[in-house]
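Teaching assistant here, posting this on the class forum so everyone can see the example we discussed in section. The complex has two components, and the goal was to see what a joint structure prediction looks like when all of them are supplied at once.
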Amino acid sequence: MAERRSRLRAEQLTALYGGTAAVKDVTLAFPPNTVTAIIGPSGCGKSTFLRCLNRLHELAPGATVRGHVLLDGYDIYAPEANAVAIRRRIGMVFQQPNPFPTMTIYRNVAAGLSVNGRATRSETDQAVERALRGAALWDEVKDRLRASPLALSGGQQQRLCIARAIAPRPDVVLLDEPTSALDPLATQSIEELVQELKREFTVVIVTHNMQQAARVSDFTAFFYLGEMVEHDETARMFTAPREERTEAYLTGRFG
Amino acid sequence: MISLMTRRRLLSRVMTGATVLCAVLALLPLFAIFGDLVVRGASSLNWDFFVKTPAAAGDTGGGVANAIVGTLIIVGVGAGLGLPVGIGAGVYLAEYGNGRFGVLVRFLADVLTGTPSVIVGVFVWMLVVRPMGHFSALAGAIALAILMVPMVTRTTEEMVRLVPHSLREAALALGFPRWRATAQVMVRAAWPGIVTGGLVAVARIAGETAPLLFTALGNLNFRTNVLQPMQTLSLQIYVFATGPFEEWHRLAWGAALVLMSIVLVFGLLARFVTRTRFRDG
């Protein structure tokens, strides 16, 4: 694959839990304004890899990381790097919708803005509306911004979490199996949203659903037993995988 | 010959009946106590009871205004000292307490919970009363605070641990510093439960007598200075119920009813707070 300038790049990344490597020596680049899907069977290290990209992995007890992750050329694992500041540039959406239950819909979206320092009321209003429109949720919640997020459906809650993640205008958005807890209709709306997100952000999505990877991504990386087996343009990988193991997985012979 | 199914059904009925009986037995003392207090104590309650201090020994009339105000002051100061420490320690244990120090704190809190309250009273007498040279409401409040800290610590820890880990991750992924994720997300989500635990602990210390015997001492006069000996309802009940005068016994019943009502109000408040989970902001 021709090397395009990459926004985010993992270099020889190894992630360990205690002495066990969950991700082994992965080098993978994410070009700006693209969607990269990470697929593979359960336990292949795809979620762990994603959590290394915003330094969330290291918070688990006994978890360590070796290697580098470059965000616009800057190593987020450099000794002087500030993990908290880095996470403000890399948004993340989780498997289960996890809006803050004690905050209103409005405060949820504004949560990431307030940690970035003082913004005026009208600036926050604008940012919240922009993020909710970006998450295709504005029309459904604009009349109840002061309501509890728990009053929303699961799909709406997940779009709220996407709005919360993109409100601070990060460079990269990480999605960790964002539709695994949702019904087919809600899944469809999230998938459409992922297509929209790449206009503004670099998107990485972990999914165990191969069809979803084929539908939403430009590039796909196949992980197996902690290693990255293959990485290619999605169209090419799904039609002509180079590796035997990739083909076996894609055709449903394991996983 | 009874069929197997019939036998099982019968056994199920018997066991269900037994647990219901136990539940009734467990609640019986509460109703018996409260009923008895209303019957014997209600007749003592009049205007004088709430605004006057006890009459001189042998005289009739008088009230327990000094004890009611004293209870509110000592329990208030005790809660003011104990709640922040207990809540802070509980949050620490839940969020950062997985190391060796956390295990030690948790163990000591459990030991302190089981410490007889009279020993805490003696301890505070040594620590506060003796150096000061006299008994004081402040010493009583410190004793009550020491008693409530481990209770509040453990309930707070439990409540914060109940908050899903995914909320902390969501906050951290947004770039919250660790302390802000703790304060603004975890503790806030656990807050109704923390308040409930705090109210239960306050209700619990409001009825303590033993630790106050060596600290607040008691006082037949109306006092609001926390550096002086002060009366509480529990001490008043103890002194009057064991005293020789009929009038004192009457006041003791009334005081018991008032004290029980205060505890009940805290219990109801705790229920109410638990129910209103969502707050704006």
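For the discussion questions: The two ends of chain B are 68 Å apart (CA to CA). Residues 4-41 of chain B form the longest helix (38 residues). Think about how each of these relates to the inputs above.
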